[in-house]
Amino acid sequence: MVNEQYKGMLSGKSIIRELSEYATRRGEEIGYDNVFDFSLGNPSVPCATSYTEAIVKLHQNMDPMSLHGYSPSTTIPSVRQAVADSLNRRFDMNYGMEHIFMTTGAAGALSHALRAVTKPGDEVLTFAPFFPEYGPYVTGTGAKLTVVPANTEDFQINFTAFEEMLTENVMAVLINTPNNPSGVVYSRETIERLAQVMADKQREYGHDIFLISDEPYREILFDGVECPYPSKFYDNTLSCYSFSKSLSLPGERIGYVAVNPACTDADILVPIMAQISRGTGHNCPSSSVQLAVAKVLEDTSDLSVYETNMNILYDALVDLGFEVVRPGGTFYIFPKALEEDANAFCMKAKAYDLILVPSDNFGVPGYFRMAYCIDTEKVKRAIPVLREFVEKEYPNR
User: In what order do the strands lie in the sheet with 170-176?
Assistant: First the structure.
């Protein structure tokens, strides 16, 4: 008999993926250039040339038995050391190789981090708006995900609700900054207050509360915005990263967990993650990809197009009368819909071949997400279509 839990998940497919698949089908009918697909957060710039050069050199020059051999269960030591050294340079930390665990992207990092510091029945808090896949990531561990309501004024943390909801059952808090879907970057004041609240509750409850920080958009920042590194502010932090966005390598599935050296059991958390891999069949990311990214850790693709696209869309949305918080990073923007039902709003937009993602699955009703990781030329061509949609469907806005 098939597993009923996963069978049930078949009827709850990601709305983002469903819309992306619809856009692909529609593009086959009318030409994809005529479909304004803002659904999927798939990087739209080429991978960094330095990464390509690094992996070519590895294949040309490295002993094939070493290059293609099994990684240790804790992943490749030289790569872990390189990541630690880079983080120490960038964020004034004191990571060692023993604090780094390489993973299959940020999803793999989150899955390992969550399993390492929670057990079935524990509660994990996250903040709306949030990436919908946090649901299966958390419930797959046997823990329960609870969502703190959004502060829709600026999408910083709703501390009034957070402090009420941070009960004794909470063993981990999951944050995402820069944030998908809002594009907002948590300020230094927000991170400092978050750390203080969590530290106070740890003392009150007499047990650890881990901060799991999801950071795949850390390098995509606009307007000179600062992105504080949460591990600098709170000892019990596990930093989860992916090179999918910084190097435009989403298909290579490479990231890491960085265990704050000051956290509880910092010396055994990476070996614990190796044991988690045994139980989940993770068994390390690609050896060659690990070795290649270690050569280019502080490089990025040309990410400037995302800021260009954000400015075009933000200005157009404001001009059309949308309420929208200006993104500080990522390649997403999260305007308020022009009616209460975001699903109805996005369905009407589909008639204009505008593919927008309604906000319900992000934990905030009445908004929609636009992923603007597409060609700037197409963003510009989308503006008159967006204007036509708004003026025809919402003439009395």
Answer: 100-103, 255-259, 237-242, 210-214, 170-176, 123-127, 144-148
The structural domains of the chain, ordered by start, are 4-47+302-393 (3.90.1150.10), 49-293 (3.40.640.10)
CB 314 within 8 A of CB 163: no
Q: Of 156, 214, 219, whose CA–CA distance to 185 is shortest?
A: 156
pTM (global) more than 0.85: yes
Contacts of 337 (CB under 8 A, 6+ apart): 345, 346, 358, 359, 366, 367, 368
For residue range 90-115, list pLDDT tens digits in order.
Answer: 999 999 999 999 999 999 999 999 99
The pLDDT tens digits for 38-70 are: 998 999 999 999 999 999 999 999 999 989 999
Residue 328 · residue 185 · CB < 8 Å: yes
What is the C-alpha to C-alpha distance for residues 225 and 389, in angstroms, rounded to an integer?
A: 33
Amino acid at 306: Y
Task: Give CA 122 to chain center in angstroms.
Answer: 23
* Strand-pair partners of 368: 358
Residue for token pair 């964020």: 91
What burial letters (b/e) apply to 367-391, b meaning 16+ CB within 10 Å? Answer: bbbbbbbbeeebbeebbeebeebbe
